[in-house]
Amino acid sequence: MPDRIARGAWPHPPLLFSELVHHVAGVLQREGLFPALLRPRPENTVPDGGIIEKQSDLRYVYRRQRPLAINPHVLAEQGEHVFSTAEDAAHHYLIWDLNLPGDLDGWQVVR
């Protein structure tokens, strides 16, 4: 940490929520899926979180599922939202999956 402070890399400036939306939308448009990699999890457990799939230039589908708190092998909830732009889908994902604006792994995200 002292090296980061000496180089002026800490504290780092906050990230703008709008820039994150733009970045995620760009990745989604190029790759067709966001996030592309899911975290490893114990076998046969339900993953917690959402993913966005680009089905066409005007159709982006956000799917979310959540395991049951007392039994991670059982699905507690799932849902789907359809968006007509990558930006709208990214905006939704950043708010509902990552609880932004706020803290993103030590980076402050602001509006």
Can you walk through the features of this model?
The protein is α+β, with helices and mostly antiparallel strands and 111 residues long. The chain has one domain (2-104). The protein has three helices and seven strands, in the order αβαββββαββ. It has helices at 2-6, 17-31, 86-96; strands at residues 15-16, 33-34, 49-56, 59-68, 71-83, 102-104, 107-110. The chain has a four-stranded antiparallel beta sheet. β4 (59-68) and β5 form a beta hairpin.
Set down the secondary structure blueprint.
Layout: H1 2-6, E1 15-16, H2 17-31, E2 33-34, E3 49-56, E4 59-68, E5 71-83, H3 86-96, E6 102-104, E7 107-110
Parallel strand pairs: 1-7
Antiparallel strand pairs: 2-3, 3-4, 4-5, 6-7
Fill in the keyword field for this structure.
111 residues; alpha+beta; four-stranded antiparallel beta sheet; three-stranded mixed beta sheet; 3 helices; 28% helix
Average residue pLDDT: 87
Total domains: 1
> Which stretches of 5+ consecutive residues score pLDDT under 50?
none
Report the span from N to C terminus.
27 Å
Number of strand segments: 7
Considering DSSP H and I runs of 4 or more, what fraction of the residues is helical?
25-40%
Going by helix content, strand content and strand pairing, the class is alpha+beta
What is the structure about, briefly put?
This protein has 111 residues and is α+β, with helices and mostly antiparallel strands. The protein has three helices and seven strands, in the order H-E-H-E-E-E-E-H-E-E.
